[in-house]
Write a structure and sequence with these properties.
By secondary structure, the protein is mostly helical. About 65% of the residues lie in helices and about 0% in strands.
Length: about 120
């Protein structure tokens, strides 16, 4: 027995979002601009995760001390947001380290070229 499906061909599916970048077109190839945009996005995401966890914790404490607030997140949701925040900060740290290594390498090459030109 075959079931009828209402599947829409992939080419007919339109995204519900529009691509967005904090980086202006004039800076499309500027790695520093892309890192700044990434940092901005990650920091805002981590801030949101931590604010939600904090709100849940405060509501839980209010409930324990006699208030009737319900917590915003379940224990699982809270844990997942903390893990997301942790992963985001780790990713940002890795990107920063890679950028710092790249800048260090560029500085070494420039110093070597300058030293070679002085001879």
């Amino acid at each position: 027995m075959s079931a009828a499906t209402n599947a829409v061909p992939a080419e007919d599916v339109r995204p519900i979002h529009r691509p967005f970048s904090w980086v202006p077109n004039a800076k499309a190839n500027d790695m520093n601009a892309h890192f700044a945009a990434l940092t901005f996005d990650v920091c805002n995401g981590v801030q949101t995760c931590l604010e939600l966890v904090h709100s849940t914790d405060m509501a839980l404490h209010a409930r324990i001390w006699g208030g009737d607030d319900q917590h915003l997140l379940s224990g699982v949701d809270r844990e997942q947001l903390l893990l997301l925040a942790t992963a985001a900060v780790q990713m940002l740290g890795k990107q920063a380290q890679e950028r710092a290594d790249s800048l260090d390498e560029q500085a070494r090459k420039a110093a070597a070229m300058k030293k070679g030109a002085a001879r």
